[in-house]
Write a structure and sequence with these properties.
By secondary structure, the protein is an alpha/beta fold. The protein is built from twelve helices and twelve strands.
């Protein structure tokens, strides 16, 4: 009995204290720069102790500031006459609240999949296997690779007929570890395609291939050690770990929008496709070259539907067609009750950044319609309250339906 008590006590203690990185005293500010102030604000990206949360554009930029850099940051904002607003007084308190909510919901929903909280990677893979086992006539899983730390990367394929070589819709999430709503969105698409019979029409003449977490090591690390971790977990120097997976693709790699510091969040890696995770996605897409008609990579946050190019402001030859589809998708999202998203090319709407998955998919894997979707914008950034998971994924599923209708009707 004593042994049992000891094991339970230690397990509970570990659950509550497993995150090593603390953000006590860190603050998050929302900057509202004018268009001519944006280049100056971008300088913050290279400042130690300052973490850029949102994309750089003329509406706002969210930055998290460490206690050590607070005075320097305030002087920077003051000297540049940049409007700012304190969004989060103490990031650590927000994270502790999130942990409590996660534990409460995990106890409440012990079995199956739920959209009341964010699931861990093992639970996500278990759900894929359960779906393939229970619905083997329409669903099948495939291991496409392993992460740096050996985690199995599984894609689930869903179709009315998996043998007829229908046009493929490829969807992924979780390239950036801390963007927890991204895997949740992919999971919800899987859930609706398989377990909701009213969506059976979406399985006709289409084949869905879905990878909920491209970066499983980073995703797990964000749950257990550092909630704000973004990158993979490969060792890139004696002191630094991780590569920005969405700068690691071999199309105009490392040309713009990346950082040279291996410890930085936008480090593109020592070479293109240095990461086993991005190589696995590359190899899988190339195997299906010619069949993939739509690619969607879910990210957060900021309410954007973005298409190539990201490496240059020069429009793609079919930019008007990609934008038109994005606008139709946004209309479906708004009609479902969601907020309106900004639609356009990544470099045109935001800023140039090379080596992203959507650019590579279009240029190298031959995917005509390739998109990055930055889901939802809240005052708490990446730390999306669990009560907002269900409305976020429910509303955007109708946007996914609009994407699918375009491909099915081509």
């Amino acid at each position: 009995m004593l042994t049992f008590f000891y094991l339970v006590f230690c397990s509970t203690l570990h659950l509550g204290s497993s995150r090593n990185k603390t953000y006590e005293g860190y603050k998050m500010f929302r900057l509202m720069p004018s268009s001519d102030q944006v280049p100056k604000v971008r300088m913050l990206q290279n400042m130690e102790g300052i973490d850029t949360w949102s994309q750089y554009h003329s509406d706002y930029v969210d930055v998290m500031v460490s206690p050590d850099q607070y005075e320097k940051f305030q002087a920077f904002v003051s000297s540049g006459k940049i409007d700012s607003k304190l969004q989060i007084q103490d990031v650590q308190k927000l994270l502790e609240k999130e942990q409590r909510e996660q534990r409460k919901m995990a106890r409440r929903y012990r079995s199956g999949i739920s959209f009341a909280y964010f699931h861990r990677f093992a639970k996500i893979n278990s759900y894929l296997d359960d779906m393939a086992r229970k619905y083997k006539e329409i669903a099948k899983t495939e291991v496409i690779g392993r992460s740096t730390e050996g985690r199995v990367m599984k894609i689930i394929k869903i179709s009315e007929d998996l043998t007829c070589n229908s046009p493929v819709i490829l969807i992924d999430g979780g390239i950036h570890a801390r963007e927890w709503i991204s895997p949740a969105m992919v999971l919800y698409v899987i859930n609706q395609l398989i377990e909701n019979s009213s969506n059976s029409d979406l399985l006709s003449s289409l084949e869905w291939h879905l990878l909920p977490v491209v970066n499983p090591d980073g995703y797990e690390y964000s749950h257990t050690h550092d909630r704000m971790w973004r990158k993979t977990r490969s060792r890139v120097s004696n002191a630094c770990y991780g590569v920005d997976g969405n700068r690691n693709f071999d199309f105009h790699w490392n040309e713009i929008g990346t950082g040279p510091n291996p410890c930085g969040d936008t480090y593109a890696g020592p070479k293109p496709f240095s990461e086993p995770e991005t190589r696995a996605l590359r190899d899988y897409a190339l195997r299906l070259k010619g069949r993939i008609k739509l690619y969607i990579s879910f990210h957060s946050y900021g309410n954007f539907i973005l298409h190539p190019w990201g490496y240059t402001k020069r429009p793609a030859d079919d930019a008007k067609e990609m934008t038109a589809l994005g606008l139709a998708v946004n209309n479906a999202h708004v009609k479902a009750g969601g907020e309106s998203y900004t639609v356009g090319s990544a470099a045109g709407v935001l800023y140039a950044a090379a080596g992203a998955s959507d650019d590579w998919m279009k240029a190298k894997a031959g995917v005509q319609f390739s998109y990055t979707v930055e889901l939802t914008n809240t005052a708490t950034g990446f730390v999306l309250p669990t009560k907002l998971i269900k409305p976020t994924v429910t509303n955007f599923f109708e946007a996914v339906r609009e994407f699918a209708n375009k491909i099915r009707n081509m």
